[in-house]
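Lab meeting, item 3. Inverse folding demo.
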């Protein structure tokens, strides 16, 4: 449950920060143009131009950093996606109708007003202070995300010691326990959900094409996981000794637990109760 709480909080914060840093970067473009005009009119100092120009790469760096962090802590559940887009919508409206126009007017006054030179000096100090605060905070968040990622990796390694994994050329689905799942990649987020069960045969072999609704998957890999001892998380048992689970994939990188490809579109079939046939290789981890 904790991992989902972290995901929900991170998605909400990321929604707000993504808009803030995007405006920070794109808003620096008209601000730079205003500074050029102000310098030509001698209403502001020349260093206002590189000052505003520098905000473009800084804003872009922070914007990318938000999604770098989000990809490592967010879960592909519906609530996380909803919270992210809700935060984007709310902050986007506030920026479009209130903060954005106000900031542009203020920049014009700073760069082209009568007291432009003094205002730019004050603005420069304020911007330096803001960047001085934003960069350490952003880097701190990135370090935290890296730490959480490492912790998840260690937990996964401990979990692998309690399973036996191998590949087979064919498998039998027991008790109708096979379900096709899909991750769908959108512009800056993604969604995970069930495709369905109807269409998955009881006996599946390498090379078979499985069709569920409007989606199809060519079975190039059948991965089997045998549970060697009871496994629990948060005080609840989620896998019991003796259980055998199977994963049907078209590509190995489509495994849902592959952290290196956690936010792209993929398709797979999960079988929670299976009988492996014709084993290929076996390794106990």
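The presenter then showed the designed sequence:
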């Amino acid at each position: 449950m904790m991992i989902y709480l972290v995901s929900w909080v991170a998605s909400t914060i990321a929604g707000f920060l993504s808009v803030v840093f995007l405006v920070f970067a794109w808003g620096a473009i008209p601000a730079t143009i205003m500074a050029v005009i102000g310098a030509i009119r001698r209403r502001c100092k020349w260093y206002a131009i590189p000052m505003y120009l520098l905000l473009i790469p800084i804003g872009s760096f922070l914007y990318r950093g938000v999604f770098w962090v989000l990809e490592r802590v967010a879960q592909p559940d519906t609530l996380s996606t909803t919270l992210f887009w809700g935060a984007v919508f709310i902050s986007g409206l506030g920026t479009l109708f209130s903060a954005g126009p106000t900031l542009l007017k203020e920049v014009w006054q700073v760069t082209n007003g009568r007291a432009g030179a003094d205002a730019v000096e004050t603005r420069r100090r304020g911007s330096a202070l803001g960047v001085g605060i934003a960069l350490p905070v952003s880097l701190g968040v990135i370090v935290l995300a890296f730490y959480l990622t490492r912790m998840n990796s260690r937990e996964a390694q401990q979990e692998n010691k309690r399973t036996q994994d191998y590949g087979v050329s064919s498998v039998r689905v027991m008790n109708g326990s096979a379900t096709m799942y899909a991750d769908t990649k959108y512009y800056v987020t993604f969604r995970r959900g069930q495709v369905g069960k109807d269409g998955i045969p009881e006996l599946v072999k390498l090379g078979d094409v499985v069709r569920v609704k409007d989606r199809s998957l060519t079975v190039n890999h059948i991965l089997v996981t045998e549970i060697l001892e009871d496994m629990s998380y948060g005080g609840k048992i989620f896998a019991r000794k003796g259980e055998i689970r199977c994963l049907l994939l078209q590509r190995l990188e489509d495994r849902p637990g592959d952290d290196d490809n956690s936010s792209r579109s993929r398709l797979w079939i999960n079988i929670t109760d299976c009988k492996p046939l014709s084993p290929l290789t076996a390794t106990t981890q």
